[in-house]
Amino acid sequence: MHITLPDGSRREVSSGTTGAELAAQIGPGLARGALALVMNGRVRDLGTPLEDGATVEILTFDDPRGREVFWHSSAHVMAQAVRELFPDTLLAIGPPIEEGFYYDFDRGTPFSPADLEAIEARMADIVKQDHRFACRELPLAEAKARLEAEREPYKLEILRDLPDGDRITFYTHSTFTDLCRGPHLPSTGRIKAFKLTSAAGAYWRGDSTRPMLQRIYGVSYPERKLLDDYLKRLEEAKKRDHRKLGRELDLFSIHEEAGPGLVFWHPKGARLRGVVEDYWRKRHYEGGYELVYSPHVAKIGLWETSGHTGFYRESMFSPMEVDQGAYQLKPMNCPFHILMYQSSLRSYRDLPIRWAELGTVYRYELPGVLHGLLRVRGFTQDDAHLFCTPEQMNSEIKGVLAFTLSMLRDFGFRDYKIMLSTRPEKAVGEPADWESAETALRQALESEQLAYSVDEGGGAFYGPKIDVQVKDVMGRAWQCSTIQFDFNMPQRFGLEFVDKDGQRRRPFMVHRALLGSLERFFGILIEHYAGAFPLWLAPVQVAVIPITDHQLEYARRVAETLREAGLRVTVNDHNEKLGAKIRFEETQKVPVMLVVGEKEAQANAVAVRRHGLGDQGTVGLNECVQRLEDENRSRLAAPRPEKE
Ligand SMILES: [Zn+2]
Ligand SMILES: [Zn+2]
């Protein structure tokens, strides 16, 4: 038999060779690290016999697909331990997640920390005994009968959603069997280090009308060191949690009595938002955009025309009754910009049109998925829509991508994860238009010399797109910018422009969000900078600290001078010792502290301290103002060392 390896080389293997045997033939290192295999694009158990002519890849923990298999298998091990210790527990689902895995169980009482310890101890035995995972296929009817006999209502519900005639797989290791698509590790012994990190309530299928389940989260690794590294990162992430810092720094709040997922920006948070918005507006005007405003509600007919009441219904708030008609809280700004486009007959001379709006939208999210500022129900999108002729499309896309990256860089994000999503099977619009749009997106990425991956067929039904995730200081990737073509709405609304030859043509339309939403971006900024914002973003940029009350007057004069230079300043007039005042400003993460005593007042000078960096020496007031003004204008956003 012949198989093809990922590097394109062909290899002869004897018939019946499994993935595990192939890994061993390639080398002992790979044999030890092999977790699963990919055959003709599908991830399979490592023990699967290879097929003649197949393309084969061996997956290790370094590959995200390998990690998924590893973590999902760990969830099975955890479920076995839970079932043995708490036999009445019902099983729901146990998928891998971004880092680690969870399993949802139905059980009257939540798991206590002592329960988690007992589960970990039992898991250690199961791992040590190195049980093999074995797969068994059953026809759907038999699978149903089996789960009915075992009284597993959640598993049965999963089965009910599967198409008839499917063959169903069960995986068994040790005494534990689970309904599961697989694939799995060869055996439990591969799991060398693991930890159960937390337990929390979670609704079945994220739906608050369904039962509340008990979810246990865990992580696992093929080496002890990887677990230690992870736990360190987890500790750091906890310190940076935007919900915790939002409280400590008095930036924002969310109120159950007002409704979940709705954000209240406190004065200091609002200061930062104001700085971001001012900067955003300035850059957009400089970049050839016009800014617009549109309402928060509109008649539902508009959303019927746009198609949102069909494909987007689940993400919309229920309509409200006004004058015997239904109005809809807007989930998107696009149809409004389209109405404005249609307010007059557009000629090719009017294009490209670039309209941007800080548009507040409302989207229904299940309560279980709401998370601080990162997942909310009301948020302000920094939205823009481009309307252009087919000839202008390439340069428009190039322009919008360069614009996006230059703004992200100013916020301190220089590392990206970029994905291009192309035409899915079901799509609207002409295939030729899709192709030229995809080409424009590719060329824009290549002209910026950006590395990107392609999600073939992963685009929305209405157009291809580029998604930009920014990587924060901890290496975590956050979705921010999207550049999304739309062949659907121009058609549904009958958009036109009059071309050079007098013919009416359809313009290209592109949706673009750059920061994503202000709320979410704020959350990302807080975590990226651990609340210690660079000078240009800090809500309070400078705290002037008089050593005693005798210098209060001079301190106020210093503050006034700085304010006149456009800086955000407070005077710390607390009736406390200097050390306590400095400590307070450090906890508030104010970037610059100017300490003034008798000596400084005499010399018209200030003693400069920087957050986290300490004493920076004494300078004349004028020079200090000049330096801070320069730093503020240059938007230096490099993260500073944060020692706490
Ligand atoms: Zn499984
Ligand atoms: Zn849009």
What Rg do the Cα atoms give? 29 Å
Largest sheet strand order: 16-20-21-28-25-24-22-23
| Number of helices, counting only DSSP H or I runs of 4 residues or more | 20
Structural class: alpha+beta
> Uncertain runs with pLDDT below 50, 5 residues or more?
638-644
> Between the first and last Cα atoms, what is the distance in angstroms?
61 Å
Strand-residue proportion: 25-35%
Query: What's the total number of strands?
Result: 33
Name the ligand types. Answer: zinc ion
What percentage of residues falls in helices of 4 or more residues?
A: 25-40%
Shape, principal axes of CA atoms: globular
- Report on the biggest sheet: 8 strands, mixed
Outline of this structure?
The chain is an alpha+beta fold.
Can you walk through the features of this model?
The protein is an alpha+beta fold and 644 residues long. α3 packs across α4, α5 packs antiparallel against α6 and α13 packs across α14 (431-447). One zinc ion binds at residues 72, 76, 171, 178, 180, 182, 184.
